């Protein structure tokens, strides 16, 4: 079965409290553009991320606000920061590493940096048709100039999801994949 690919760059999810620290009391994040998943959007606001060895400026914030502040980076980013972030599903901050987020009004240092696991967003109807449940793992085969197989793709089921695989820029660059490319979903459940 075919599936579209979404490619995620490094980004930040913030709590309401952390927006206040970084941008000032009463500040509201503003929408830059909608993302492929309903209700999710890129904000106009950007921050600087700083690790032990270096920083990266102009990192976009994604909305809406979350219950936990989370910084999603790639392994390549980790080299620049001098950190060793774990691969985790979004929202799982177990063993997340320390990173500093710098905004125009303040900064926050917390254990929030992770490398996002490859994952499949899927709605319940399509998941049922494919005999998939939340927390399953599948594979994705990509074609093109550098074809290959991406394993250990985590399945996330929700009424709010549009059917799409999300990869970070390291995975996308390794296989010469770009936003909107198509791949083949392989339902050979792992683990």
Shape: globular
User: Which bin fits the share of residues in helices?
Assistant: 10-25%
What is the rounded Rg? Answer: 17 Å
* Multimeric status of the protein: single chain
Give the integer mean of the pLDDT values: 96
How do the SSEs run, as a string of H and E? EEHEEEEHEEEEHEEEHE
**Ends: how far apart?**
21 Å
Topology, number of strands: 14
Short description:
With 191 residues, this protein is mainly beta. The chain is 14% helix and 45% strand. It folds into 2 domains: 10-115, no CATH class; 119-186, Beta Barrel (Barwin-like endoglucanases), CATH 2.40.40.
Protein traits:
191 residues, mainly beta, 6-stranded mixed beta barrel, 6-stranded mixed barrel, 4 helices, globular
Would you give an account of this structure?
This protein is mainly beta and 191 residues long. It has 2 domains: 106 residues, no CATH class; 68 residues, Barwin-like endoglucanases, CATH 2.40.40. It is 14% helix and 45% strand. It has 4 helices and 14 strands. The strands form 2 sheets. A 6-stranded mixed barrel has the order 1-13-10-12-11-14. Strands 2-5-4-8-9-6 form a 6-stranded mixed β-barrel. Strand 3 and strand 4 form a beta hairpin. It is globular, with a radius of gyration of 17 Å. 30% of the residues are buried.
